[in-house]
Amino acid sequence: MSTHPVAAIAATHAVTEPDALMPALTQATGPSKAGAPTHTSFLQMISDGLDKVGQKAADADAQVKAFILDDSMPPHRVIYALEQSQMSLQMMLQVRNKVVEDYQDIMRMQL
Amino acid sequence: MKAMEISMSGLDVEWRRLEVIANNLANANTVSTPDGGPYRAMRLLSGPKTSFKGHMGTDASGLNGVAVYGMEAEDTPPHKVHEPGNPAADANGDVSYPGIDHAAEMMLMIKTSRAYEANLVAMNAAREMYVKSLDMGH
Predict the structure, then answer these.
(1) Tell me, what's the pLDDT at B59?
(2) CB-CB: which of A80, A87, A91 is closest to B8?
């Protein structure tokens, strides 16, 4: 075989698995089939994470409201809920930064 | 985050303990209660938080924080003071005041307050570690 090894691998992959690079996206956009593999896609993970951040913010909101209505409630519960909300938001921002950074790296790639 | 949840349970318990101590001090001169007799100093009972799941062995770590088990009255005898004019006096003219040891209550209060602070420090350390971990790769 005179072909370049890397090119050869790429060629075989292109033939056998045309969708090899995009499994996550196709899974995330299409409705999940009963026989589909059970691993969660990246997009699904991001989406779940965002839901959790939203949930924590809502929890913190509820705690603040409860504290205003009932002053027998210990203040550390409120601060804890706010702290949890802030921490998950920071985590989400970091994930977003990394994703955007990687996306820009790929966009700048010389072809 | 488990570490913060554990510290949180500690904060809850110590807060409750302080409420119990405050109640003891507030009732230091309560000579009669609905149950009859003088007020009795209460003590908060706390211990490791366990769950059914933990007992069944599926959660091997067993680190669940602390929980309030309940309250128990202290078994200290009331101290009798001779006050014949007091409406709460008995046949001998003695009034039974709660056997609350003020010094002991104060010491317990300081211990409680320090334990609360220690839990806060542990929680802040956990938070600090979490925030530091977000800086990874920078």
Answers:
(1) 60
(2) A80
**How far is the C-alpha of A73 from the C-alpha of A67, rounded, in Å?**
6
The whole-number pLDDT of residue B108 equals: 95
Mutate to test the interface with B, among A67, A77, A83, A89 (most CBs of B within 10 A): A83
Query: How many whole angstroms separate alpha carbon A76 and alpha carbon A68?
Result: 14
Q: Is residue A66 part of a domain?
A: yes
Residue A51 confidence (pLDDT): 92
Average pLDDT of B42-63?
A: 77
Instruction: Compute how many other C-beta atoms are within 10 angstroms of the C-beta atom of residue B93.
Output: 13
ipTM entry: 0.78
Task: Count structural domains, chain A.
Answer: 1
Contact A87 B131 (CB under 8 A): yes
